[in-house]
Input
Amino acid sequence: MTLLEQYKEKQKKISYLGHAASLMNWDKETTTPQGGMEKLAEAINYFQTEIFKLSTSDETFDLVCKLAEPEEFNKLDDVMQFDIKRNKRDLEKMRRLPQEVFEEYVKATTKASIVWPSAKRASDFSKFEKELEAVIEAVKKYHSYVNSDKQVYDALIDQFEEGMTQETIDRVFGNLRKELVPLVEEVTSRKEPDHSKFRFKVPSHVQDKVCRFLVEYMGMDMTRIAFGETEHPFTTSMNLDDVRITNHFKEDNFIEPLFSAIHEGGHAIFEQNIDHKYEGTEGGAIPYMGLHESQSRFYENILGRNINFWKPIWPQMTEMIPELKNVTLEEFYQEINSVEKSFIRTEADELTYCLHVILRYEIEREIFKGNVEVKDLPALWNSKMEELLGITPANDAEGILQDMHWSDGSFGYFPSYLLGSIYDGMFLEAIEKDLGNIDDILAAGDIRKITVWLKENIHQYGSTRISSEVLKTVCGKELTAEPLIKYFKKKYSA
Output
């Protein structure tokens, strides 16, 4: 075999192991009984360790280095050139990491992700404190090897949004914080819509049907998607033809699952729309979470919370949920855009949601500066909530234990949610410049025109352009929060 054929054969084996590990993780989150968790965790640890060993082996690294030499590299097409460059860079980092340190990290995060749900159900942070301490230490140790040239939190931010820094986030989040805290105060001082009209139960199977209808309407290829139910909704991709999303249905709150479906559907459409030429290569995986979140939040908020999104499909909605015949579309629009100071990030409106993310960012920054001990995190959380939203959680479940991210070591991920929204303000301007007024497009039932635009300008390229490059190419400007601030002020002044 040629060097390239040997390399592709090696990558195929790694991808098969990754597929198996992904399936087990999906199973862990969706169907595994509590009694089977420990054995499944051992199996996941085994497969992830085998992936690490094979992908960082001398043989794999030697192949990558040889293919990176000019004589071989110049023979490669653009897809494989990107793959080799990215793989060489990442391998040089990962090969600094001792296998035992990697195993410690996997064990700590796997155990914590199993303990977190029970601690949340008990609303008792003390049941999770030890595991969280272990995860934080494992994260620090991991990055002391892999990113020894960076501060740990800068490395974590870069891991989820390449090229992003605390300095940039401090700037754009600071601008938003300054504008949104008084705007939230102003909006929440107004009269609330009548929520009582929406206090009816919708069976889970009906919610599931509606959610599938919505993602298909958005442009989802239903032959390449699977659905599941979990405590915390998420999207995962086995490969470009097997993307999976989960939801958490609530019979007494049907609106939240609808928007979870739209959100996760945005993630999944991004994955489905990657050009198949990147299948099995570095270009086919999206590690830029700000960009990924921009797509899910664009569908959820910019499109899904626009009254014109619902106008063409309101007859189908009232058919599937007959109780909606007792409310007007305008009342539904008011309900899904109601601004309230609430405790749960995933249930927050698009305006206060920004402050929920700023809270988490500021706490993570303090953790990795060494300014707060784990045992004091609930108190810090509550004080930040009071500072930003003027409310204090009554218990740990509606406070510090509500999110799964820290249990799996995903520090540095939270800023991605708000970066995604900031990108959305910029993308909205670009779309309207190219396609015209977004209200008119949605009212005409042409949402798929927007999906095609997103595919042609963002999705198809996979990870071959980092987020800052996407912004420059698509929007013609550097990162700024001004378009998002403008969008919020225009919408909520009305």
Notes: The chain has a mean pLDDT of 96.
